[in-house]
Write a structure and sequence with these properties.
Layout (H helix, E strand, L loop, with lengths): L4 H14 L11 H11 L4 H15 L6
Pfam families: Arc
Keywords: DNA-binding
Protein name: Arc family DNA-binding protein
C-alpha cells in the first residue's frame, strides 16, 4: 500500500528538520556498480557511503570539537 499524503508530509517535515544532503557524483557507469555493491552488503547507497565516511573519520580520530 502506498504511503498516504499525511505520511508523505510527515516524512518531508522530518527530513527537513533532521537531515542534510550531500551530492555525490561518479563517472558514468559507476553508479550501477556502487548500487550493486551496496545491495550485496544489504545496504542502501546512502547507508554504504555514510558508513564508509564514518569509518574513515574514526580511523583518523577526526572530530571538529
Amino acid at each position: 500500500m502506498p504511503p498516504s499524503e499525511a505520511q508523505k508530509k510527515a516524512t518531508a517535515k522530518w527530513q527537513k528538520e533532521k537531515v542534510e544532503e550531500i551530492k555525490f557524483r561518479v563517472p558514468k557507469g559507476k553508479k550501477e556498480i556502487i548500487q550493486a555493491f551496496a545491495q550485496k552488503h544489504g545496504e542502501s547507497v546512502n547507508g554504504l557511503l555514510y558508513r564508509l565516511v564514518e569509518e574513515a573519520m574514526q580511523a583518523e580520530d577526526f572530530r571538529l570539537d
